């Protein structure tokens, strides 16, 4: 029989992160990279999520203290974004139970921004992925019409998750992507500063 504490942990976000990232350590492309340890990232993620839980702060509340979006806040705790020195000070103040060493490591390590393909089996993630792919051609067509020939950056980019109330009183999810438009260029010979040699 599992204790009530064990059952609570198994169903917690921390446990989910450990399971997901431990799988990544053995199954994902990140495991093959010699520059990172997926196991260490999984363990640090668990500790950071535990510190967040101990603080009693929601992602929105923590994001307000850090001055970043709620999605970026989650990315920081999960090792998918780099923590700046300025934000590290705010994070330590907001999560006093977080290890100083963990936060320091988050400022010096360069994230390997990969993902375990198993995550696409999770219904919430899959439905978001499905929505983007289903509406993808329409989204591209409107971007082209409004901005020209190019793409939305996912680097100069903001993502925010919120909720609103529908006309029947139901809660609705609102996900905002705010990315810089990057136009495709015409590859003019005179502008090419690194021309290939010709033997």
TrEMBL record:
SMART domains on file: Cyanate_lyase
Pfam families named among the record's database cross-references: Cyanate_lyase, HTH_3
UniProt EC number: 4.2.1.104
Reactions accelerated catalytically: cyanate + hydrogencarbonate + 3 H(+) = NH4(+) + 2 CO2
Keyword set, alphabetical order: Lyase
Domain of life: Eukaryota
Molecular function terms, GO-annotated: cyanate hydratase activity; DNA binding
UniProt-listed Gene3D superfamilies: Cyanate lyase, C-terminal domain, lambda repressor-like DNA-binding domains
SUPFAM superfamilies, per database record: Cyanase C-terminal domain, lambda repressor-like DNA-binding domains
Domain Cyanate lyase C-terminal: from-to ranges: 114-187
Broadest EC class assigned to this enzyme: lyase
NCBIfam families named in the record: cynS
HAMAP family: Cyanate_hydrat
Function of the protein: Catalyzes the reaction of cyanate with bicarbonate to produce ammonia and carbon dioxide.
Family to which the UniProt record says this protein belongs: Belongs to the cyanase family.
Name of the protein this chain belongs to: Cyanate hydratase
Source species: Skeletonema marinoi
